[in-house]
Amino acid sequence: MRSSSNPAFRNLPGGGTQTYGQYGPPVGFNQPQGGVPGYGPGRAASGEGDRPMTVDDVVVKTGLSLGTALLFGVITAIWAQAQLAETGRLSGALIGAMLGGLIVGLVISLVIIFRQKPSGALTLTYSAAEGLFLGALSGVFEVIYPGIALQAIIGTVGVFIGMLVVYKTGAVKVTPKLTKWIVGAVVGVAILMLFNLISSFAFGFNPLRDGSPLAIAFSILCIGIAAFSFLLDFDQADRMIREGMPSKWAWYTAFGLMTTLVWLYLEILRLLSYLRD
């Protein structure tokens, strides 16, 4: 299976007729028999109790994850705006919700990534935590820049749909060379973010997030990389379907897509705030 820029899709076990590498196949998993894996009739191994994954499984699980994040996000955003309107400042409860969602989401994402196993409960909990964090953050931004949250949501959905169309039409082929470029870009951006974070805490110097022309260019770069990361995510999902992975692995695909969506939304929200200023 080709590598992905998304850590959730790195070193996944294979399925179907593919080789499994050093990790081996999922416990009790055999190649489905009869039909085309992921699209036609087939059966999982005895005792697996799970059929091969399909496109519908990915759509449903991703929709449930996204719906959970939106539900928690909208409720938290409304509450955050009410808190700010009442007190005129960030309350301890609001800051706690924001940091709590961020930390819980980070911890759960690391657990899912290092376990390399699908879990509907963990994926939905991650989505709820990210919804809590993004909702609180969006509520604050909405008070400062009215309408910005809706614009960021529309922008995120637009980029997602656009890259899905690009992938499905084959306008951009996911080749090993493109994969290496995107993975390298993600790693490079992550290193820059880390150094910028350290610089902001140690020296009060925050050139990549201070709203300057450099910060605007960096956000546009991050949005572009996140958009192209969707191509790798879609390709990984397609490969998992073709290889006949059990349907429960659709939760893992949903988690991977959610991590990219969260990153993209944050970068679009930042960019819009810079442009409003």
UniProtKB/TrEMBL annotation:
InterPro entries the UniProt entry points to: BaxI_1-like
Transmembrane segments annotated in the record for this chain: 58-80, 92-114, 121-141, 147-166, 178-202, 214-234, 249-266
Transmembrane found in the keyword field: yes
Signal peptide as annotated in the record: none
Entry keyword annotation includes Transmembrane: yes
Stretches the record annotates as Disordered: 1-51
Bias type Low complexity, positions: 19-34
Pfam families, per the entry: BaxI_1
Keywords from the named record: Membrane, Transmembrane, Transmembrane helix
The protein, known as: Bax inhibitor-1/YccA family protein
Organism: Amycolatopsis balhimycina DSM 5908
